[in-house]
Design goal:
Blueprint (H helix, E strand, L loop, with lengths): L4 E10 L15 E5 L6 E6 L15 E5 L6 E5 L17 E5 H6 L4 E5 L10 E8 L5 E10 L12 E8 L5 E6 L14 E4 H5 L6 E8 L7 E9 H5 L6 E4 L3 H6 L8 E11 L3 H6 L3 E9 L23 H13 L7 E7 L1 E3 L4 E3 L2 E2 L8 E3 H15 L1 E2 L6 H13 L5 E9 L6 H11 L4 E7 L6 H7 L6 E2 L2 E2 L5 E5 L10 H13 L2 H11 L11
Helix pairs in contact: 6-7, 6-11, 8-9
């Protein structure tokens, strides 16, 4: 896959503890990264040591791969500096824990955290600035042609195509682009094509890009015509002049004294454009608003029975609670007020036992928001004790409710994510399809987690990955639904942390693309983070 987004962290500290009697401390910051799904921490790197200051601004930066869909836990330790090679507790200046998503989700990508860890002392603060490395988002468009390529086919001329490879750190090559085949010519002109810079060279402009020229054969045994090497930097010079490359076939070169080349390839045009990324929008102030809807229909089974999908034992959360926690804990880093509207559907609600498909879990119609994921969990458990599980399973009301909110602000400053957790036996399929098709033109995404043993064909249809969802002849403008069955993530070894991290990863992986597709179709540019 294409290398992911790279984020650069800049570190400063303010008001560090003064440990040295004769001069100020000589601080250094060590970054540890938590190994996904375990409690183990690995040292990632350290800044330089700055002598004699309590307010260091470190020059050495940390460059991390960033994944929206994963909880990437970081720990910053401030040992006392260079003079004690062993990190002894006696001179420890403090530490801070933070998720990478929290830094990126902070205003303008800046986060200040108190340092803790020295009992009874104020340890000052650590300041983190996250910036996406700019060359991650450039997209190149280029066009090539060739002249006098070797004739490979017995009857006609050759049918040439090009294959591009980027070189990896370890000297191996990874294929990153194939042109189309131009039939029966030794002087082909290929169509222009676009490719992300990071796919071409992983952001390193001087890294080798290898290009092979082949003659296409129907049976798949394409004949090698020759090869040439270049780099992104060399290709980019073509903005001002044509660049001509000699195509060489090493085998022929060895055999024939008079061999010159197997033809030439000319770079006709080369241009670069910047693409906006998910991080640009988040840093520009786009807020993700997270709403939860939980299935309270009778098909889940009585919550007091161990066979119920809502059953929570003293030792284990229910499937509903686990799915909510897994997804919510990542999303909440991007939601500044940490207030989540939470609804239930398909139950009879007190006092008069009316069936409701969008009752607030906190029982407050005026303000259905719960404080943090913990608040949602609390209200969910409270509701289980007060409502009567009933039916039918209607999704449309809660989808329309969130769509109504999303429709109020469409300038790109707000984006809504609705998490529906359900046992999947849906009653209002037609209305739900209609609601999703309407919502597909709004700044929102829907995540559906299916719990329990049901067959989830209806959910797969809503997901729209295979076939674009439609309702009464209208097609969804974009794919906004992501469905996963919870049972695929409950592993037998019982490592819940790891399997829930995998669940979150899979349901959240499409959100950045869905947000970008909304912004793109509306031509909304990220707001520039105000210069300091």
């Amino acid at each position: 896959s294409v290398p992911g987004t790279k984020v650069e962290l800049t570190v400063s500290c303010r008001n560090l503890l003064d440990m040295d009697t004769f001069s100020k401390s000589d601080p250094v910051v060590v970054l540890f990264v938590q190994v996904s799904g375990s409690s183990e921490w690995k040292e990632f790197g350290r800044t330089e040591v700055i002598d004699n200051t309590l307010n260091p601004d470190f020059v050495r930066k940390f460059v991390l791969d960033y994944y929206f869909e994963e909880k990437q836990n970081l720990r910053f330790d401030v040992p006392p500096g260079s003079h004690s090679a062993l990190l002894g507790a006696q001179d420890f200046l403090g530490q801070a824990f933070v998720a990478l998503g929290e830094v990126i989700g902070s205003q303008r990508g800046r986060l200040e955290r108190p340092l803790t860890g020295v009992p009874g002392k104020r340890c000052g603060t650590i300041l983190l600035l996250a910036e996406e490395l700019s060359n991650c988002r450039d997209i190149v468009t280029m066009q090539l042609c060739a002249n006098k390529l070797d004739k490979k086919d017995f009857f006609g001329k050759s049918d040439p195509f090009l294959v591009f490879y980027r070189s990896n750190e370890d000297g191996t090559f990874t294929i990153c682009h194939k042109t189309e085949v131009v039939k029966n010519t030794l002087n082909p002109v290929w169509q222009p094509f676009t490719i992300p810079v990071r796919a071409l060279c992983n952001g390193d402009y001087d890294r080798t890009v290898k290009i092979d020229v082949y003659d296409w054969d129907r049976d798949g045994s394409h004949d090698f015509i020759g090869e040439f090497a270049t780099s992104y930097r060399e290709l980019s010079r073509a903005q001002s002049q044509f660049t001509v490359y000699e195509v060489l076939n090493p085998r022929k070169k060895c055999k024939k004294k008079k061999y010159v080349n197997s033809g030439t390839v000319t770079l006709l045009s080369f241009s670069v454009e910047s693409e906006f990324t998910f991080v640009d929008y988040i840093r520009g102030g786009t807020q993700l608003n997270f709403t939860v809807a939980i299935d309270f229909t009778a098909s889940n089974g009585l919550p007091s029975q161990p066979t119920s999908l809502h059953y929570a034992s003293p030792y284990q959360l229910s499937a509903y609670a686990l799915a909510l926690k897994a997804v919510g804990e990542i999303i909440q880093d991007y939601d500044s007020d940490k207030l989540f509207p939470a609804y239930g559907f398909g139950a009879k609600v007190p006092p008069d036992g009316k069936i409701s498909h969008q009752f607030p879990l906190n029982n407050n119609v005026e303000n259905p928001s719960c404080a943090g994921i913990e608040g949602v969990l609390e209200s969910y458990l409270q509701s289980l004790r007060t409502v009567q599980l009933y039916g039918p399973t209607n999704f449309a009301p809660v989808i329309n409710q969130v769509a109504g909110t999303a429709a109020q602000v469409t300038d790109g400053s707000q984006y809504h994510v609705l998490l529906i957790i359900t046992d999947g036996v849906i009653s209002d399929m037609l209305q739900t399809k209609e609601a999703i098709v309407t919502a597909s033109s709004l700044p929102m995404s829907i995540i559906i987690v299916g719990v329990g043993p049901a067959e989830f064909e209806a959910m797969e249809e809503l997901d729209g990955d295979e076939v674009r969802l439609s309702s009464r002849g209208r097609y969804a403008e974009r794919d906004i639904v992501q469905f996963v069955p919870f049972r695929d993530y409950v592993d037998d070894s019982g490592n819940q942390v790891l399997s829930m991290a995998r669940l979150a990863k899979d349901v959240l992986a499409e959100i950045p693309e869905q947000l970008l597709s909304y912004m793109k179709t509306r031509d909304i540019k990220p707001r520039r983070a105000d210069p300091e």
